[in-house]
Structures are given as structure tokens and as C-alpha cells.
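[AMINO ACID CHAIN]
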Amino acid sequence: MSILNQNIFGGAVLAVIFLCLPLSEANAAQHRISGPGVENGDEIQKQLARMGYYDEDMTGYFNVITSNAVTRFQEDYGLPPTGIVGPDTMVKLENVEMMAKIVHGEARGESFIGKVGVAAVILNRIESSGFPDSIEEVIFQRNAFTAVIDDQYLLTPTKSAYDAVKEAMVDDADPTMGAVFYYNPDGVSDEWIFSRTVLTQIGRHFFAE
């Protein structure tokens, strides 16, 4: 097949693909990653890469590879697999990112199970009447997490941190037995925490109710 014929054939296939897509999806496939609440498509692509969904060059543009990465994320996190970064997908990406930052900041020296434990505590607090009812509010509750206080929250999470979040959020893994607190006894500054009933220990962290 000649180069001309290849170009014509490729263009025809691309045209068919776009005709088969809803208008909003066809438009998104030609532009930078965008959608309600999306301010930085580059960061979304980087997050997808850190999570293991995207392994190509960072372009910031929404293409088939990016759409496939978004689809895999959506499938894993129980969202409709549209391949488009809409409002629900954006919120889920933000929540996963916040949790991964806490897990990395608080437990990057711990085992994988220890990291899952920290992620589980966040989710357990949301379910508890004694804490806020959203991931963002739990994480940024005053003096709730050392990583927020000392800016370790600003560090870039590793894939292990994202995987730990997925274990807790998607697979309902909770090695803490329902804990809503955890602490390292060697670094405690407020002895009040010792009044909490310890449920289990994972690495250097004691997990308590």
C-alpha cells in the first residue's frame, strides 16, 4: 500500500472513530485534557502515569492513549468507563491523590500493609460519626495528620502509595480492624492517644479505635 493510500485509509478510520463517539468525546479527543473542574491536564496525565495507567510521553493532550488510561482508572474505581475526565472522574482522581499523599507522607517507611492501614483509617473516619464525612475534610481536619502539619503531604506519592489507596478504597482492605487512629509510640507528643484501645500493630504504627 502506498503512503498516500495509507494516509487516506488512516484518515478514514480516524473519521469513523470520531463519528462513532458522542460529540463531547470526539471534541475531547482533539484537545487538551479538559472538563468541569479540570485546570491542569498535564497534572492529570502525570497522576495517571504515577498510578501505572499511562506510560507514554507527557503531552497534556487528550488522545487515544490518555482515554484508554482514563478508562482503566474508571473501571478500577467503579466509574462508568467513558474514557473522559468528567466531574465524577475528576473528583475520584482528586480523592485518590489526596489519600496517596497522606499515605506517602505518613507511611512511606512502612510495609505495603502498613500503607494500606493508613488509607483504611481515612476511610474509617469518614464512616465514623466523630469525624468529617469527606476525604478532603478528614485529611485537612486541624492537627489530624502530621504529614499535613510538616508539609510531607506536598511530596510526590510513589506507585506503592497509590496501590495502597486502591486496596483500601476499591478492595475494602482494612488490616487495622476498623481503627480510626494510628500512632508511632516513639514520636507521640500528646499522651492522650494512649487512652485509645489498640486493635493491632503494623510496623511502627499502633492502630486504635
